[in-house]
Structure formats: structure tokens, C-alpha cells
Design brief:
Helix content: 10-25%
Largest sheet: 7 strands, mixed
Number of helices: 6
Distance between the termini: 8 Å
């Protein structure tokens, strides 16, 4: 499984012969590694409705023919924009979808989910992507919550956690999340995109190294990791 950080909470994932993109926000993202037109995708995962997670989802899906994977309300929103039902996979926290490359499990996220046009985006979620014998948890935008321990019980090869604070958990709470999740590796996201969410990722990594059993991975935007 190959995972590339495209900036903010946008990730490119290659697994099981498929290409996935998570929370595509590239064209207006100041730290983005590429533009939406550069991304190839078979599946587009959208965690919630905020502009900085959904803005480029429809353009990428239309250009590539990708299937959208998201919650019930956002799925309906995409279908109202002309997407065929066969190209929208809907789920919700606690549910899983079997897809050609593996499985996507929807996890809870403590966050809001208004859509760019002001309509209701349902509940925010995170994802566990299971493929090639690996489990990767993308917490997406969330606060710390105790049930992260149950998410980690599946055995996580990587946990990707927001550290930006203000709109999501920050450095201290993300450290507690790593303790609850007990992943083999942990990586930060959703930070340094704009001044209000600037954080010291190197300092975060040192705390993870000192206080948990996880290996911290602080990727540069555009950097790829391979899970072995």
C-alpha cells in the first residue's frame, strides 16, 4: 500500500490495484502538492462536507469516472448534481463497504459537516481503509474521543491524525489518540495550511516517540510512504 500526503487532509492511496483520493482539496489549497487535474482516481473518499475536504471531489470524479464514497447525505448531494447512483457508495459510522481493492469502514468523528452551499452534510466521519493485509485509519476532522480505542482494536498499521487544533484536536489530544489507537505508525495532518492551524510537527513526533509505542512519520507535502 502506497500513501502520499497531498497537503491538509488530502491523501492519495494506492492499494489492491486501485487508486484512491481522500478529501480532495487541491486547487485552492496553499500547500498542495499538485492540482486536481493531476490526480487519477478510481475512488474518491469524502469524510464530511466542509469546503477544505470536498471542493475538488466532483471535478476529479467526473474527469476520472471514479466512484464517490461518503455518507448518506453527501451522497445524495452528489446525486443531485448529476452523479449516477451506481457511482456513489453511501455509508455511515459503524458501517463497512466491500470494494474491489478491499474494505472501507466508516468511523465516528466529532465534528460538524455543513456543505459548501449551506445544506446539511450529515455526520462527519473518518475511515479505516483495509487492503493488502493492512489497516490504515484516517481520523479526518475530529476531536479526541474514547472509542478510538475500539477503532484501534483491529490492529492499525498507520493512524493519520489531525494536529492543527482550533477546528480539530491539537498536539496534546492527538498524543492521547495515539495512546488509545496503539498503531504501529502515526502521521499528522490538517496543520500548517493557514496561520490559525500552524503546529510544530517535529515536536509532535518527539512526543509520540517518547510517550507511545508508535513510530511517528512526519511527511513532507508530496511525500510517499510504503506500508510493508
Amino acid at each position: 500500500m502506497k500513501i502520499t500526503w497531498l497537503g491538509h487532509n488530502c491523501w492519495s492511496i494506492e492499494a489492491g490495484g486501485a487508486k484512491l483520493v481522500l478529501d480532495p482539496y487541491l486547487d485552492e489549497q496553499p500547500t498542495a502538492a499538485c492540482k486536481a487535474a493531476d490526480v487519477e482516481a478510481d475512488f474518491v473518499l469524502v469524510s464530511h462536507g466542509h469546503f477544505d475536504h470536498i471542493l475538488d471531489a466532483a471535478p476529479i470524479a467526473r474527469r476520472t469516472g471514479a466512484t464517490l464514497v461518503t455518507n448518506f447525505e453527501i451522497g445524495n448531494w452528489f446525486m443531485a448534481q448529476g452523479f449516477e447512483q451506481a457511482k456513489v457508495e453511501q455509508g455511515g459510522p459503524g458501517g463497512s463497504i466491500e470494494l474491489p481493492f478491499g474494505r472501507v469502514t466508516f468511523t465516528p468523528a466529532v465534528h460538524s459537516s455543513g456543505l459548501p452551499d449551506g445544506s446539511y452534510g450529515g455526520v462527519a466521519c473518518g475511515f479505516v481503509v483495509s487492503a493488502e493485509g493492512k489497516n490504515v485509519y484516517f481520523a479526518c476532522d475530529t476531536a479526541l474521543f474514547g472509542d478510538m480505542q475500539r477503532i484501534g482494536a483491529v490492529g492499525l498499521d498507520l493512524a493519520v491524525l489531525p494536529i492543527g487544533d482550533r477546528f480539530t484536536m491539537g498536539v496534546c489530544d492527538s498524543l492521547e489518540a495515539v495512546k488509545l489507537l496503539a498503531p504501529r505508525r502515526a502521521a499528522p495532518c490538517h496543520y500548517n495550511t493557514w496561520p490559525p492551524i500552524v503546529q510544530d510537527a517535529a515536536g509532535w513526533a518527539e512526543h509520540v516517540r517518547q510517550h507511545t509505542s508508535a513510530e511517528p512519520l512526519t511527511l513532507a507535502v508530496g511525500e510517499t510512504i510504503v506500508l510493508d
